[in-house]
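TASK: fixed-backbone design
INPUT:
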């Protein structure tokens, strides 16, 4: 199976903010691409037992990551995690009974919140408080951290997708 690659190409040159936005959007689109054309059942498939990691679990996790770093840290919003009232980031990985429609709706909404917050920030030097680190962090660090998170989890998504239907690449 060949999935059309319609991801936005990250810029090859440009300002720092443009480059960060471009690479972050590229990695967001890569996660979506890895899930393209699969059923809910396939998206929930644990492809590397005994691990509970699934593609749908990765989407849910990245929704929490977007929410935490942009809304809670940079914007200072007092919002709970989506899938854990106790603040357990691991809860999002449990995609048992989850659906593509629900997970992608939440993830896409959090991505839009993140984009709004980033665009509204005067500079990349804007800071927010990261309670887990007990430190102020810059928007620059948040964007770099998200790129790192997506890149790492997109590597997981590569293996998960290949185990489901043999699709590799991109």
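OUTPUT:
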């Amino acid at each position: 199976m060949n999935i059309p690659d319609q991801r936005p190409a990250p810029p090859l040159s440009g300002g720092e903010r443009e480059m960060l936005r471009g690479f972050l959007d590229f990695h967001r689109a890569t996660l979506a691409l890895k899930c393209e054309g699969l059923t809910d059942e396939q998206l929930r498939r644990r492809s590397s037992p005994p691990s509970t990691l699934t593609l749908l679990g990765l989407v849910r996790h990245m929704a929490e990551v977007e929410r935490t770093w942009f809304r809670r840290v940079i914007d200072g919003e007092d919002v709970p995690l989506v899938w854990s009232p106790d603040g357990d980031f691991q809860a999002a990985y449990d995609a048992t009974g989850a659906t593509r429609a629900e997970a992608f709706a939440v993830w896409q909404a959090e991505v839009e919140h993140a984009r709004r917050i980033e665009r509204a920030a005067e500079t990349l030097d804007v800071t927010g408080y990261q309670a887990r680190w007990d430190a102020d962090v810059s928007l620059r660090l948040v964007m770099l951290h998200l790129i790192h998170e997506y890149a790492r989890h997109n590597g997981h998504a590569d293996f998960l997708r290949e185990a489901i239907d043999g699709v590799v690449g991109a």
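COMMENT: The first strand starts at residue 127 and ends at 130.
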